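Usage example:
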Amino acid sequence: DIQMTQSPSSLSASVGDTVIITCRTSESIGSYLNWYEQKPGEAPKLLIYGASTLHTGVPSRFSGGGSGTDFTLTISRLQPEDFATYYCQQSYTTPRSGFGGGTKVEVK
Amino acid sequence: EVQLVESGGALVQPGGSLRLSCAGSESSFNTFALSWLRQTPGKGLEWVSALSGSGSTTYYADSVKGRFTISRDTSKNTLFLQMNSLRAEDSAVYYCAKRMFASGDDAFDVWGQGTLVTVSA
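Running the assembly step on the lines above writes:
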């Protein structure tokens, strides 16, 4: 199985900050990496697929990068509604897939 | 956009059975590739099972293979997950999700709201 490691597991930030979350996989997955946002009591929502393509309706302050084994999710100009938990997911072994452990973005 | 609504979660004893349902809001639901995933505070998000768009191929995580069965009733626009021989470690919020395919990429673009399964004596 492909192991996925997200870091940090949590971070504190302020509105207007730029936040960078990383996801590392145990083997190369090309660009088959997706990012999701989840708020308490809600299902995850797709933000980015194919490592860098913004899903429909997702604000442009979200961006994704990387390939192979190292990936990033960047949130520029953090907004109040962005305080949430973010997960990476590999679709290289689709339909079987795995998720990172999550990164909780909290208010500083 | 299609909406997915899960139901069927409950408290069940170890060794028991449960059937989860996921109803789609439109008939195109019957052509979607769909998956069940689950989430616990301890283990995070875990993929459980998948059904191909044609409905002819099924996939299972090793942790549920032989115990869970995924299926679809096209007359009811509904996806099912039959769960047998339930264990405490199957306790989780279960989500159904639609797989999206775009330019060779594959992601879960529509999720249900989740249904809670608790396995406990």
